[in-house]
Amino acid sequence: MKKYTPADIEPKWQSVWAENKAHQTSEETDKPTFYALEMFPYPSGEGLHMGHVRNYAIGDVLARFKGMNGYRVLHPMGADAFGLPAENAAIQRGVNPRAWTLKNMERIRQEQSRLGNSYDWDRYVGTCTPEYYHFTQWLFLLFYERGLAYRKKGTVNWCPQCATVLANEQVENGLCWRCDSEVVKKDLEQWYLKITDYADRLLEGLDELTEWPEKVRAMQRNWIGKSEGAQISFTIPELGLTEVPVFTTRPDTLYGVSYMVLAPEHPLVPRLIEGKPNEQTIDQFIGQMKKETELSRTGSDVEKIGYDTGAVAVHPLTGKEIPIWVANYVLMDYGTGAVMGVPAHDERDFLFAGKYGLPIRTVILPPGQEHGKNDEMKEAYVDEGTLVNSGSFDGMSKREAISAITHHLEEVGSGGKTTTYRLRDWLVSRQRYWGCPIPIVYCDSCGVVPIPKEDLPVTLPEDVTFDGKSNPLTTSDSFRYTSCPSCGKEARRETDTMDTFIDSSWYYLRYTDPKNKELPFAPEKANEWMAVDDYIGGVEHAVLHLLYSRFVTKVLHDAEMIQVDEPFKRLFTLGMVLKDGSKMSKSKGNVVSPMEIIEKYGADTARMFVLFAAPADGELDWNDAGVDGIYRFLNRVWRMAQQHVELVHEKPEVKLEDSVAQGLNRLLHQTVKKVTIDAGDRYQFNTAISAIMELVNGINAYPAEGDRGVLAEAVEKMVLMLAPFVPHITEELWHDFGHESSVHKKSWPTYDEKALILDEVEIVVQINGKVRHKSVLPATADKAMIEETILAEEKVKALIEGKTIRKVVVVPGKLVNIVAQ
Ligand code: ANZ
Ligand code: ZN
């Protein structure tokens, strides 16, 4: 018998597929479309890791499954190829970032092919190529034309290690998302995209994304952080100001205010402290706070620190004076940068007031309580209740008071309803070389001038120095100095490049029309495929990439470039691959290299293992014995199929005359049903594979003299069902069966619900609760018939001889219990 040698058959079929362009997107426009997409990789110098293998295996199974189910499938791949590692390699090893990246891209492409993934390579997209970034620049200009790209000076997050600014989304717990360095604050003039204009639509859109994991939707909701409340104006007489607003979600607690707090960076602070006793201390405090991150100031375990400015504010309703403080826990870039302190009903204020001896005034009583007991308070009371000490609003519920007080403030001109968001505009400037140049020049006469679209792309220069200290683009005179597109005079080019998340926010659209030289994509091409039906990737992109892509899609929708306004219909986030319980990493020395596994066992084993070893959304613990087990299983499949080559070829008639043949037929239909639903619809690849394993066992146990028709059919369909999971071995076996065309072009097997119905069932007979006998009855038998048949059986009669039957309990399809004494 021919031996299973993945090292021969896998490369063989891969070249056949490449030659035949087997994975090219088909032009059969009468078929329904299916867009299957895996997040494209960053082409690092290390090649693919097991997480990639798992990600691509899922996408590939879905793409192949849909193809076999009559869809016209788009399944593209590319590389997210701009970014810092290339530049760091240039700084550390003197290599050219472009050459370094292109080499890595090629390597990854080879490895992806070696996995047997069915990508349409003709649509390959690398974001660092001028053909691609031409249109990243085009998009930037579209944003600019629509008033959605602007330049602003402000306090930004700066990573000293990466020597560049970061967007808010790229600061995780105060650390740089890429290198984990502590992020500091800096004042710089930078480009922003106005994602805040889309805050409400980004939020509302989440409700429609019912096929996204709830976890991801919740993370985006939190990130957008919509908060409804009121703006309330206080007066500061010594500055002659009547409208210093605070933002609060609890206007009902207005009578409980005992102080006001400004963020240390609040523009009024220097004027308030001038000449006051705390002036120097507060000045120092401001300097210190400017360097700190949001988390180090507002984390729940961070101590609250503040200083009395010595100035007072006047309450808009009571006219009473309250002290104005500055404190670390109030942030300048949220709400108005000013807060009304209500210690009795806000936890942070409670701690702050306790520490600095500020008064605590109860204005909300818990239901059923008649008096406030401030001296006994151990924590702020934040729940529902009834208003007290609140003038004419006494007796109202929290909810009533929120609207009544807000309404009253509106009437007296001291405030009103307002909504704030946590979301900030997307800071997209990066002081780095290996990114997409921002297509803008600065002219002394004309100011900020966008490069005309017909002059794109602005390409990256080669005459740059990588010293690791400053933006290399500033070292290229040929790049920096240019002429103004509008007046022709000398002008300077913007030397910042774009955040690489812009590159990846639209690549899925480029795949629909990858060679277009005029536009990022033709609307009709994108509309043919969008939205992506299945998008598969890591949960680490829950906010960053997935939020940015949604934003960009909405802008392109508004620009009438595309019909849909959500890019990804269904999202699947896969779990991590671990080894011995911890994440595979170089530093832990526990990395299992995909290419080594492929060399040893073949790509089919690697694919099947990552799909089988754990549910796709859970963590997968790498386990060598498990890989071995899969390899043995594929060998078993191989031997069984080889044994039956003649039989399958012959295709005897399926007769189903005896119960053994009917049994195998039923198992076959059950398996088809389970695999179709689990793998095709529920991302349950592990259970789908177990079902096929059971079928293999069933075929193995089938008697040699049994009905040959059903056996041939079971073997053939088993190979068909395995095809999306293990594309090489199945292609080889399929051809061994005598077929000329590819197994991957065959239709997916169907199942017959009728064949699933059991004709007969085994009934357990218990006597006084003990199992004594088993009997086979028609599956359709009802209670009365079961009881009658069982009691009439000789064996049963013998067992209860001499006893009186007290009771008979019948569970149809399962058991009969006879109580006899
Ligand atoms: C008075 C008050 C009383 C508040 C009370 C809460 C409870 P969310 O839900 O996150 O929007 N706040 C407003 N601006 C702030 C800033 N720049 N820095 C820090 N805290 C700020 O929270 C809104 C609440 O956070 C606001 O409502 C304000 O405190 C505080 F019993 O105002 B509240
Ligand atoms: Zn000019």
Automatic annotation (TrEMBL):
EC class name: ligase
| Residue ranges of domain Methionyl/Valyl/Leucyl/Isoleucyl-tRNA synthetase anticodon-binding in the record | 666-782
Q: Which residues does the UniProt record annotate as the domain Leucyl-tRNA synthetase editing? A: 221-410
Biological process terms in GO annotation: leucyl-tRNA aminoacylation
Instruction: Tell me the Pfam families matching this sequence.
Output: Anticodon_1, tRNA-synt_1, tRNA-synt_1_2, tRNA-synt_1g
Give the enzyme's EC designation.
Answer: 6.1.1.4
* Matches recorded under InterPro entries: aa-tRNA-synth_I_CS, aa-tRNA-synth_Ia, Leu-tRNA-ligase, Leu_tRNA-synth_edit, M/V/L/I-tRNA-synth_anticd-bd, Methionyl/Leucyl_tRNA_Synth, Rossmann-like_a/b/a_fold, tRNAsynth_Ia_anticodon-bd
Which chemical reaction does it catalyze? Answer: tRNA(Leu) + L-leucine + ATP = L-leucyl-tRNA(Leu) + AMP + diphosphate
Q: What are the subcellular locations of this protein?
A: Cytoplasm
Which residues hold ATP? 586
Q: Name one GO molecular function term.
A: leucine-tRNA ligase activity
The alphabetical list of record keywords is: Aminoacyl-tRNA synthetase, ATP-binding, Cytoplasm, Ligase, Nucleotide-binding, Protein biosynthesis
Per UniProt, the short sequence motif 'KMSKS' region occupies residue numbers 583-587
In this chain the Methionyl/Leucyl tRNA synthetase domain maps to 40-183
Q: Where is the Aminoacyl-tRNA synthetase class Ia domain?
A: 423-620
Q: What is its main location?
A: cytoplasm
Q: Which domain of life is it from?
A: Bacteria
* An example Gene Ontology CC term for this record: cytosol
Annotated family: Belongs to the class-I aminoacyl-tRNA synthetase family.
Entry protein name: Leucine--tRNA ligase
From the broadest rank down, the organism's phylogenetic lineage runs: Bacteria, Bacillati, Bacillota, Bacilli, Bacillales
